[in-house]
Amino acid sequence: MLEAQALLNANLWSGAYYLGGYAVECGLKACVLAYIEATGAIFQDRKFSERCWTHEVEELVKLAGLERDRGHAVSANPGLGVNWAIVKDWNEGARYLKWTELQARKLFEAVADPANGVLAWIRIRW
To answer: What is the pTM of this model?
Structure first.
C-alpha cells in the first residue's frame, strides 16, 4: 500500500489502482494459508490447491473460508460493505487498463481506510 500511495502521489493512477488491488489479493492469499493450516483443507480436497491459483478476490474469500465472517462484518458495518463492493471488482487484468484518478483513489481508500478498509479487515484474519 505504501507503493500504491507513492503512485497516487506521483499521479500514476493506473499503477496505484493495480497495486491497491494486488495488496488485497496478497492479503487474502495469506488468509488462505492460515485457513489451510487451521483446517488441513489441502488434505480434504485434492483440487483445493489448484483452485488457489487464482487472482479473483471473491474466489480467494471463499478459499480462505471468510464468506460468512465477511457477511456478518458488512452487515454490522455498512462502510466496510461499501468498500468490499468496490474491491470485489478488481482483477489482475487491471494492470493492462487505464484507470482514472477517481477510480484509483476510490479503490485505494476502500482498501486502505483504517476504520472500514478491506485490508484492515483482512489483516486480522491471516
So the answer is: 0.94
- Rounded distance, CA 81 to CA 77, Å? 7
Long-range contacts of 4-7 (CB under 8 A, 24+ apart): 4/108, 4/111, 4/112, 5/108, 5/112, 7/104
Q: Considering only CA atoms, which of 70, 117, 93, 87 is closest in space to residue 21?
A: 87
Nearest CA-CA partner of 118 in 76, 91, 75, 79? 79
Positive or negative: CA dihedral 15, 16, 18, 19:
positive
pLDDT digits (tens, 9 = 90+) for 59-84: 999 999 999 999 999 999 999 999 99
Tell me the DSSP string of 53-87: S---HHHHHHHTT-HHHHHHHHHH-HHHHHHHHHH
C-alpha span between 91 and 78 (Å, rounded) = 23
Per the listing, cell 489479493 goes with 25
For 60, other C-beta atoms within 10 Å of its C-beta total: 22
